[in-house]
Write a structure and sequence with these properties.
Chains A, B: This is Homoserine dehydrogenase. The structure is a homodimer. With about 425 residues, chain A is α/β, with parallel strands linked by helices. Chain A is about 35% helix and about 25% strand. The first copy, chain A, has 14 helices and 18 strands. β12 of chain A pairs antiparallel with β12 of chain B, so a sheet runs across the interface.
Chain lengths: ~425, ~425
């Protein structure tokens, strides 16, 4: 199979390296892959990988798209504008497309599904788009085909998991771990895509489609990132036998609707996700036939991501990966609501009647209080304390918080985390 | 695709139930599966599942094998004699074969590989054979195709993991947990296949083939089951920040050979496998591109196992699963040796000079002692104590133990466990 590669960066270079070292092994297994053209922005730039023998380095993607001898287009340039044009053109020409571009897929999912369906000669594969080296796309496509997923949750962003693990294990501050993550190249500057949870949200949107058959527009998913997490939260987490993780969560509600959210969460230490630290990702899938299965592995990195790209390329070369890349469609209603128990951290100026007021507000919001927790008071003008709730809704919690911020002793917007 | 099912027991019934409830969903995804015949020993026996509409219940497998309208044979009868004849006949006829029969595959792997190769029209799939609901076969086939696995280790037997978890968490004795596992139907009577590690060994043999391309005859794999594990070992485990697990392990040695063993092991609490309890299975795969990925899920059970069978059936119906079912062949030399650190529990009658002798024997076996551990002595005639070693070999440890048992104060054969 003749391949045109778009993008000669970290992952593209990893793909070339894997094909160079493992090409014979792949061929032995029936996957003959030859990169015949690489399209890069600057053809003169020295690359940190070996250009495959006989491969032409080009500057114009048309040179690949209009080459009828090229069967497969591997898009690893990133971005959602030019990359989209290239992918749409490749699909329209019946080429096999392999990509790791999660933002592009999440933003254009129904359009991509339609386009692939219209030209059955081609195919569209994207294992690398979600959680780097974890074969979660393939697993959802293969192992849940006769099953019914009821919930999916996981650590879908390695950068924030690295940061939260450092805070949990070393007691480092948010600012320090962000600086370290930036220095190590894990976080970009500005780090919003990671720390606000937007990267995880794209991945969750794709997983919702595969697991539940429903397209959930990213911007409709409630998203509470890690920017307000402080060491205080880890102290309370310790009291609660929990740790703090940024999770993407989607689960079927008893009424047949689906709830999806990305949130910094309090995760019980008995939950397998609590022990997954550093840049690792981890996805937990609960279904009718399998109960809970957990898949963990590297969420990013040159060879982990490139490995998923190569796995897709090999699958397609061996004749697989055809059909609807997003499996099936359902008409499940998605509600922007989170059901469950919550952790709410308030910061107040110490005084009389605060708990009485909170009790009244909770009652008015129909929230049953599970516990009030407080670590030692250091500064009476800035007293953090925590309320945990019994099962309720994020709407109810938000209503309570909106009322509480109007109280004169309230020092900042309460921090809300679901408890998992 | 017209299917003949051999076996109407737990898993066979689960397959029928899944196809009944999820058949339309499978068809929507391009997998039309119709069970047209079920072969059972006693056609008159009432089944605990609904016989599919239009399906004939037959007593003779020939009725399926010789029916040219049947495309796929799903073997779920178990056993290694009649089942083998049936599978070989189905393969020879170019039918697609799906099975969950790990003992049969492990015992006949090269023969099966040859037979499938000889008739390219058919295929052979066996996701259900290893670790029930975990899609480890598919993952090794798909996600490691361009990678190089360096080690694979895991909890491959749910029954013993249930038992060891109970001992660890509740402090229950071996005899009590075995009785409970038998009562719950997890352990058979006699429980040898589980507790001696033979079931895990079959699975490890199959995983060795997929991960390393090498056929390792089961009987050549050193196998140390859980029958001698006592609560003392959990006390030492606690001291060592470990727990006790039965693991199947295969890893490449620096000299290019492969070591494989099934052993009761001391597993550090930092190792993800240590937190996988109950009847769950868990496989950890380390490779060049992905570092370590971990997959956990139900190791057994009607619907978990049947789900893997249905996943294979759907894959084949959609045109996948063709080609060499065991991927590739290599000529790696397998050595019946275990390299690493070891835990050795001795039981002695208390006396003078025991440690001095042990020190001398360790020196003679070229073993560097890491620590000598002892919990409080309760009975001076039966004193357990533990030696942990630095990196060495199982051969050296066995040599030391063989010498030690000759000492007059030695009360029983030392218990050896690798430390992971």
């Amino acid at each position: 199979m003749r391949v045109g590669l778009i993008g000669g960066g970290t992952v593209g270079g990893g793909v070339c390296e894997i094909l160079r070292t493992r090409g014979a092994h792949l061929a032995q297994q029936g996957a003959e892959l030859q990169i015949v053209k690489i399209c890069v922005r600057d053809v003169a730039k020295k690359r940190d990988f070996e250009i495959p023998a006989g491969c032409e380095v080009v500057g114009d993607p048309k040179s690949i798209l209009e080459d009828d001898t090229i069967d497969m287009v591997v898009e690893l340039m990133g971005g959602v504008t030019t990359a989209k044009d290239i992918i749409m053109a490749a699909i329209a020409k019946g080429k096999h497309v392999v990509t790791g571009n999660k933002a592009l897929i999440a933003a254009n999912l129904p359009e991509l599904q339609q386009a692939v369906k219209a030209v059955p000669a081609g195919s569209f594969s994207y294992e690398a788009a979600v959680c780097g080296g974890i074969p979660i796309i393939q697993t959802l496509k293969h192992d849940y085909v006769g099953d019914r997923v009821t919930s999916i949750m996981g650590i879908m962003n390695g950068t924030t998991n690295f940061m939260l693990s450092k805070m949990a294990i070393e007691g480092a501050s948010y600012d320090d771990v962000l600086a370290e993550a930036t220095k190590l190249g894990y976080a970009e500057s500005p780090p919003d895509f990671d720390v606000e949870g937007w990267d995880a949200r794209s991945k969750l949107a794709i997983l919702c489609k595969l697991a539940f058959g429903v397209h959930v527009p990213e911007e409709s998913i409630p998203c509470m990132g890690i920017t307000r997490v402080s060491l205080e939260d880890f102290k309370y987490a310790h009291q609660m036998k929990c740790t703090v993780k940024l999770l993407g969560v989607a689960s079927m509600n008893p009424d047949g609707t689906l709830s999806a959210h990305v949130s910094t969460c309090m995760v019980h230490l008995t939950n397998q996700l609590s022990g997954v630290n550093g840049v690792l990702n981890c996805i937990s899938v609960t279904s009718e036939n399998l109960a809970t299965c957990v898949y963990s592995g590297p969420g990013a990195g040159r060879f982990a991501t490139a490995n998923s790209v190569v796995s897709d390329m090999a699958m397609v070369a061996k004749g697989g990966g055809r059909g609807d890349p997003f499996l099936f469609n359902t008409e499940i209603k998605v509600v922007p609501e989170v059901n469950g128990k919550f952790y709410i951290r308030f910061t107040v100026k110490d005084g009389i009647g605060i708990i009485a007021t909170l009790g009244r507000l909770a009652m008015e919001s129909q929230i049953s209080i599970d516990a009030i927790l407080q670590v030692a008071i250091e500064n009476p003008d800035q007293v953090p304390f925590v309320m945990t709730t019994d099962t309720t809704t994020l709407s109810a919690v938000n209503k309570l918080c909106a009322a509480f911020v109007k109280e004169p002793y309230c020092q900042e917007k309460p921090l809300v985390m679901p408890i998992m």
